[in-house]
Design a protein that fits this description.
123 residues; 11 strands; mainly beta; seven-stranded mixed sheet
Length: 123
C-alpha cells in the first residue's frame, strides 16, 4: 500500500503562485511515477503533470506548460507542483497520484490517490 498526503492548497489571487506538496509513505518501491490531476465543479478529472520517480522525466498538459513545474525530492519521498501565473481556470481540487510503470497520463494509469486539496484563484 501507498499513502499520499497533500498540502499547500488555498486561496490565491490571479497572477500569483502556489506550491503543492505530496508526501508518499508505505510501499515506496511500488512507485514508478507520480502525478497531479485536477477536477473543477461539474468537470471531469483532468491530467496536469507527471514525473517518473527514477529518471525524473516530466510531462505536462498543454494548459499548464510554461506555468507549472513538477519536481521530486527522493530523500523525502515527496513530489511538488509549483504553480505560477495562476488564473481562474486553474481553480479546482488538485489530487496527487502514484502509479506503476505505465507511461499513461490518464487517471486509469495511477493506483493511489491523495485526499485532494482545493486551489481557488480569485480575480
Amino acid at each position: 500500500q501507498v499513502q499520499l498526503v497533500e498540502a499547500g492548497g488555498g486561496l490565491v489571487q490571479a497572477g500569483g503562485s502556489l506550491r503543492l506538496s505530496c508526501a508518499a509513505s508505505g510501499r515506496i518501491s511500488s512507485i514508478y511515477k507520480m502525478g497531479w490531476f485536477r477536477q473543477a465543479p461539474g468537470k471531469e478529472r483532468e491530467f496536469v503533470a507527471q514525473i517518473f520517480w527514477s529518471s525524473g522525466y516530466t510531462y505536462y498538459a498543454d494548459s499548464v506548460k510554461g506555468r507549472f513545474a513538477i519536481s521530486r525530492d527522493g530523500a523525502k519521498n515527496t513530489v511538488y507542483l509549483q504553480m505560477n501565473t495562476l488564473n481562474s481556470e486553474d481553480t479546482a481540487v488538485y489530487y496527487c497520484a502514484a502509479g506503476g510503470i505505465t507511461s499513461s497520463a490518464r487517471a486509469s494509469g495511477y493506483d493511489y490517490w491523495g485526499q485532494g486539496t482545493q486551489v481557488t484563484v480569485s480575480s
